[in-house]
Design goal:
By secondary structure, this protein is α+β, with helices and mostly antiparallel strands. Helices cover 22% and strands 45% of the residues.
Amino acid sequence: MKKILFASFLALTVMSTVAFAAPNDRVDEQINASFQRDFVSAQHVLWEKSNDYSKATFTLDGQVMYAYYSNDAKLLGIVRNITSDKLPIGLFTDIKKNYSDHWITNLFEMASDGSSTYYITLENSEEMLVYKSNGLNGWDLYKRTKKN
């Protein structure tokens, strides 16, 4: 399921505009009720529905977040963009030490099943690298793309 959430979120981050369904009008009542229980003080909720899941884009304490729900109203995961200084120290120092010739173009945290996974996109003039955190101290290459 994390691959579905990651692919969905990564696709959204590269799109300049996304059309969402109006709040609550196309989302199952059970899903909406679960969301309202899980995120009591959420604001500006917009829904997008696919065959496999529903996604709420919302603001919580001033931060934009994304919550993914299965069709049976189970919370699958929560995603939020972060800055590099919000990474666990081991992941932060690994990036600074090993990728000083790259710049960060995307970084987000995905929380699911009580744990967080981090995804970072690094670029330089020759390539784009996407890494997934491996615990709190290292990264695994998720995708490498050569630039022309």
